[in-house]
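Fold this complex.
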Amino acid sequence: MSSNGPRPPRFLVLLARLLLGGDQGRLVRDDLEESFLRDLEKRMPFHRARRRYALNLLGSLWSVGTARLPRALARGATLDAKLGVRMLTKQPMLTGAAMLALGLGIPSSLVLYHLGGVMLSHLPVPEGERVMGIRNYSIEGRDPVMSSVHDYARWREAGLASFASIAAARSYSVSVHAGDSGAPPVRGSEMSASAFGLLRASPLMGRLLGTADEVRGAPDVVLLGEELWRSRFASDPEIIGRSVRIGRAEHTVVGVMPSSFRFPMDDDVWLPLRASPLDYQEGEGPGLYVFGRLGDGVTPERAALEVGRITELLADDDPQRYARMIGEVVPMPHLLLGVEQNFANDDVLVVQSLMLALLLIVCGNVGTLILARAATRMGELSVRTALGASRTRIVTQLFIEALVLALVATGLGLIAAEATAQWLMHEIDPAGFFPWWTDLGLSTSTVLAALALSVLAAVVAGVLPAFRATSRGVQANLQHAAGGKGSVRFGLGSSLLIVSEVVLSVGFLALGGVMVRNAFQDSTGGLGLEPDRYLRVDLHVPGVSGASTPLTPWTDGALPSGTADQPAFRARVVQTQREVVRRLAEDEAVRGVGMGFDELAPYVPSTRDIVLEGREAEGVTWDAAWTRVDVGFFRGLGRPILAGRDFTSADLEQMQGDGPDPVIVNISFVEQVLEGRNAVGQRFRLERGSAWFEIIGVVGPFGMNPENPTKDAGFYVPLALGASNPARYVVEVAGDPAAFAPRLREIVAAVDPEATVDEAVPLEEAWELEGSIGRWMLIMMFVLAGVAFLLAVSGLYALMSFTVSRRTREVAIRSALGARPWSIVSTIARRAALQLGIGLTLGGVWAWVLLNRLVVDEPLSTPINVPVTILVTLAVTAIVGVVGCASPTIRGVRIQPSEALRDG
Amino acid sequence: MSYLGEFEQLILFALLQLGDDAYGVAIREVIEERTGKMVSAGAIYTALGRLEERGLVRSRAEAPGKGRMGRPRKYYWLRPEGARALKESYATIQSMAGGLITKLTELAEG
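Structure:
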């Protein structure tokens, strides 16, 4: 082609030269140019010829690329993969540290992603992704709001055109009496008949609920779940038509649903939804899940627009309720779990980003290890380069080696993750912890994400060090290799990495150690009661019409005073709560019974800052736990009043007035807050509130804070019976509390057959259960701290090994010239010692900050001696660090000058 | 029988037509003229390489200086094995299509 003649676009020609190499590539390039010229000879317009050239080039790149890549990969990768596997076994300590780090790091960084995936996936019903939740979102509370029967009625009246049909359900505990009194309640729901069609559900036997069942006055009917039918009714083939008592009323079983259907949460019983807006005032009544199946061709976005518009219209009529609401359409799991529409909100993204950042640090460290390994192989790599291997080839080899490491580590990590998931499902799921559609087992997307992260890890840990290892020319590398030295250097980045890991290790080990000690110590020493003698019970009275009185949510500024509700229902709740206390107290096996409305002993997590009267100006606040109890709480449990008096009914009346609310404080409150002064008559208020509390009595310790008796100042507020539903009872039993649970259920059933005992567990067990998940989290944290520590030690080991191999000749010469061993140790270990020293110093400071911030001021933590804790952690870290450095140092000291110089 | 893809059959027919003048650009032009479809040089050489590996075609490089701008061309021709494979592939298609063309045309034209 003449240089002056027409030419294809220069950048395309360059691109062709760059990407189409080898004999075949040259032929293709020549053809491209010849075709271009021939097109012009045929009087094709220049721009068209250029376009044809570009298309021809792109097609050629695709064809040649797709043909070559698999072969090249297969040829090169097989060899590299073999090498990679060999390298795994060659340096076991390095491999072990790297695999542990990646095997824990990669699956850990995906926990949030995985949970989001499995819990927020669509329901396992036909075309489940088209079933959407309908709800309002409170702008003020920044929370989704449960729908009311009025909301449901309005959406139905509006005739939501975006949905083929809509339905509603509410899920709660129900007592199923199958001739086995004392059995725990099961989860059941009232559901509109339209729900079954909408979910495309069919019964295992019998029929579904129909619209005729929803009519008030129609015979009471029930659908049973397959598991319940099998376990409680012995798979009775004649179950259809049989009468079963649910709560107070007899219900006729009309069908059995297959075990694959447990809608909405994890339910076993379905009753017709008969709640009507006529039964309730606006804003009252049971909370409902409202949902619908999208009409053909309707997108969720279009449905959301319609629901949003309806809420806006409602706001015109009833601004008080709807003006601060947004109507939204969300996937079903978001509705049922109360998750915000945008699950990946800022908090989640921050946590996810932090986890990925941690993974990158881990990868960086593994990269240091791989760099150290590459340093010992410089001779081999240089010779390969000299024999014609391109830099890309060498980098690819190191990448594949890192990839093999990452994939094996990820594979092992995923196996461990799957085992953990199965354990969790087995241990925790029977308690109904996870919703029915959740399978924590590994999903395809999680495995793919883990594999993608493995590749990323291999790039960070393999490619970057490989570029550094091959950054010098062949000549320089060969010279260094011939001289017994590597050309690779541990730069500032590697040093920073090692130092930062020592810092992280010290901090996490100190914190983790304290927390693990907290979690596993016998925490009942300062409790003031023997937990193995008590039963903790949650009693819930469901309304006939489904109404329940939830605990009034805590609002800063004032203690909640209870809820107003339908008078008749409230009277029933009061009667049930009082009668259960009376009958329990009369039972021979019971030594004492007390009723409260929040978390009771042995774990009261709610604490608030309080201000003492007369000391507001000082700006001093105290942290105090609080809980609301029945006025007969202390009498019922036989807890003596140490000073002042016990609660009486008159106190409840006083709480309705303008004066200060009466409270009883514990002895720790007197000692810690009042510094031993006479408590009775003293007043305090919440830091962010205006209402005053007046202390009328003092009691001994009773499980306000078993973790840290020095931080268990607390106070009790009286609350009227029926003001809260459910109620929580603490029952002191003469014998084994667990053995008393069935008897307790019988007593409750005799008082109110519909009332459910949602929980009846020995205090000790309840404490164990509450603590167990937290403990496992702590153990995980401790393990991760251990891994960071192991990485730091292995980094130091790698640095030392590298130094020894790099300076063998120098050490040999110095040794031959009569240098003392100590001087040689100093030569080899100086840098590692410096890094360890800096890391320990900074780590000590960080641990100090961490412990003071997170442990010392934390009420639920046992008291610790911070300096001793830090010194012990530093000592342990230093000893392990030194031990990690010992082996290469000894190797360095034992270098024989004659051998080293001869080999060099 | 050696299986031939559609594109490989097109290339072998082009070699048949071009005889001694079958090199990349010429093959590409013949295919484009006869089929009306644009094909890339890369696709042609990739397929030719594959056919050569299978022993269906042979090639020789023209000595430098003789061809375009002093750069050598590579000429290809059918080996008897290639001719047999092409004949069998074509016969298979013909046998399958026998008596069906009218029906196919009717279906295609709706």
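The domain at 6-108 of chain B is CATH 1.10.10.10 (Arc Repressor Mutant, subunit A).
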